[in-house]
Design goal:
By secondary structure, this protein is an alpha+beta fold. It is built from 4 helices and 11 strands; from the N terminus they run αααββββββαβββββ. It has helices spanning 3-23, 36-47, 51-54, 116-123, and strands at 56-60, 66-73, 77-83, 86-92, 101-107, 111-112, 135-146, 149-158, 161-176, 182-193, 212-226. An 8-stranded antiparallel barrel has the order 1-4-5-7-8-9-10-11. Strand 9 (161-176) and strand 10 (182-193) form a beta hairpin. The longest helix is centred in the first third of the chain and has 21 residues, at 3-23. 17% of the residues are buried.
Amino acid sequence: MNSKFKVTIGAAVLSVLALLVLTGVGSGSNAGSMNMEERFNAQAADTKLSPSETAGNYTIDPRHSYIGFRARHMGLVDVPGSFTEFKGVINFDSKKIQNSTVEFSAQAKSIDTRVEARDNHLRSKDFFEVETYPEITFKSKRVTRYRKQLRVYGDLTIKDVTREVMIPFKLFGPIEDARGNVVMGVEGEAKINRRQFNVNYGTNLPNGTAVISDLISIDLQLESVRDKQ
């Protein structure tokens, strides 16, 4: 066996050993059995940020956030879409999360379902009437805990209708990033009835199934950065 081949094998063995160490395989670590959320929370705990270092106003970062929705089509599949222009602020009370608040708004015209003709139809009077009602807004009223779940209740305004909705959510962080910014993530998912917001377009198939479902799933992935103190 020549020396070049020995070096290659040795490097490969070292790479495998390094991978096993990083994933916790063959050791007392339980890292390999952690899911993504558990790993994140463990890493966040290591930052050891004090309440004073995490409390304050956080501005939603649209570059790392997503406001999406899904509508069931003919009872077959969920067709996804999103709003690409939005902004918002989270006021985070690190000592008592129930006192935290959140507000965000999306530009209705920025709706994007990857089909231009459909997007233009959604902007029309049949759906969102974006020229008359340019913004979709949410303003929280209270935050509660239910068992292990966090819930935010607030006023959702679509077109000329404002209704209270409840959004279950998970909170990730806050942590300090590589640039010294304090950042947090909020992940929420809820369902609303579009007809309760005067979005009524759509017919039924002969068997009674709605071409466009009344229930719309909302998906929120919001990363935010604490304002400089």
